[in-house]
Design a protein that fits this description.
single chain; 248 residues; TIM Barrel; 11 helices; 8 strands; binds 1,3-dihydroxyacetonephosphate
């Protein structure tokens, strides 16, 4: 792993938790993160961001799971980048497969959200990944390349290389069926190659059923710079064990 790519382990809480849980979980992580070589981030539901930010006390960073591509206006239920930024978000997930599959976000929507986040001073974490059907049809590289190209066509390769990418094969999310380290490494290397020399400094995280038991083998791959963790990020000790796996 390049020294320029400090390992990053991020927890995507999805639609889980409440204020008490956010307070307790982030407080527990704060103690474990102090002085770590690994950067740690959490993505709570938007209404819990401020609780997480105040509990984090700068030992870890906080992100939002989704933002609008629009700066303001008549978009009932949406949140702008400026609102996220003001609440203390350092990061924003864009293009998570659940947003793509359940809320119909297209590659173009994802590209617009990526540009809006970056312009607003919130670092996008761009999620890419193929479905099982696509993998079995041999389309993994084509799908991931098209997802990436929609964003690079919009903002340029350098802007994407300056952000964070998360490769999350859809078939590995919430299924307990993780990609093997070799499968994940192959796609990470492919994504990095798409970014050319600029991709050498880009952190590419793996997501999909990461837990304390499989994290070390995944993170030891040369192009895997950390993880985007769902279910296992809701338990403080389990998530701390994943963070520690990235320290080794
Ligand atoms: P799981 O770790 O629960 O499979 O979720 C992965 C994910 O979607 C993180 O964004």
């Amino acid at each position: 792993m390049s020294n320029l790519r400090r390992p990053l382990v991020a927890g995507n809480w999805k639609m889980h938790g409440n204020r008490a849980m956010a307070q307790q979980l982030v407080t527990a992580l704060r103690a474990a993160c102090q002085g770590s070589a690994v950067e740690v981030a959490v993505f709570p539901p938007a209404l819990l961001v401020e609780t997480a930010v105040s509990a984090a006390a700068q030992a870890l960073t906080v992100g939002i799971q989704n933002i609008s591509q629009h700066p303001q206006g008549a978009f009932t239920g949406e949140l702008s980048v400026a609102m996220a930024q003001e609440a203390g978000c350092h990061w924003c997930l864009v293009g998570h497969s659940e947003r793509r599959a359940l809320y119909g976000e297209s590659n173009q929507d994802v590209a617009a959200k990526f540009a809006a986040a970056q312009a607003g001073g919130v670092t996008p974490v761009l999620c890419l990944g193929e479905t099982l059907e696509q993998r079995e049809a041999g389309q993994t590289e084509a799908v991931v390349a098209a997802q990436l190209k929609a964003v690079t066509d919009n903002v340029g390769v350098a802007a994407v290389a300056a952000a964070v990418i998360a490769y999350e094969p859809v078939w590995a999310i919430g299924t307990g069926k993780t990609a093997s380290p070799e499968q994940a490494q192959a796609v990470h290397a492919f994504i990095r190659a798409q970014l050319g020399v600029e991709g050498e400094v880009t952190r590419i995280l793996y997501g999909g059923s990461v837990n304390a038991g499989n994290a070390r083998a995944l993170f030891s791959q040369p192009d895997i710079d950390g993880g985007l963790v769902g279910g296992a990020s809701l338990d403080a000790q389990e998530f701390i064990n994943v963070v520690q796996a990235a320290e080794q």
